[in-house]
Structures are given as C-alpha cells and as structure tokens.
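Lab notebook page, bench 4
Experiment: in silico fold of construct C2
Operator: M.H.
Input chain length: 78 residues
Purpose: comparison with the prior construct
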Amino acid sequence: MVRYEASDCEIVLGGVDRYFRAATQVGLADQLTWPVLHPFFEGIRDELGVQCTVASRLVERGEGARLVSAFCFQGPPA
C-alpha cells in the first residue's frame, strides 16, 4: 500500500496478468484497456455503496506478462 488516509487510499498491485498474457499471444493487448481490475473495483464500490472515485493507471509492463498497476480510491473529505 502506498498511502492510506481517511479520505483516500492508493495501492499498487503487481504480478503476472493472465489476461494480458493471453491478449498478447493473440495480438490484442494494445487494443484493450489496462489495468483490467479497474471495473472490478468500481463494481465493489457500487455493490457496497461506498462514496468514492476509482482511478487507476498502468505503472509498468514487464517481461512474461508482468504488470504493475496503481489504484486510487478517493472519497469525500472526512
């Protein structure tokens, strides 16, 4: 975790992304949006009714389908 405060939290996740690996193998990786976990986190937010925005960015693409992604959850000021 990079930052955790009352109104916002930023985490960094890294590892081999099987979807990125498959998309790369069929030549679609550059046509898709990464990181793929962004909609997943939005779904959790919506299901739990948490009032926050979800932002994400791809930090690094590495060998062997390794991705590092950062996610920021920002809520209203406490």
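Observations: Strands lie at 3-4, 8-16, 53-62, 66-74. The helical segments are 18-25, 37-48.
Next step: discuss at group meeting.
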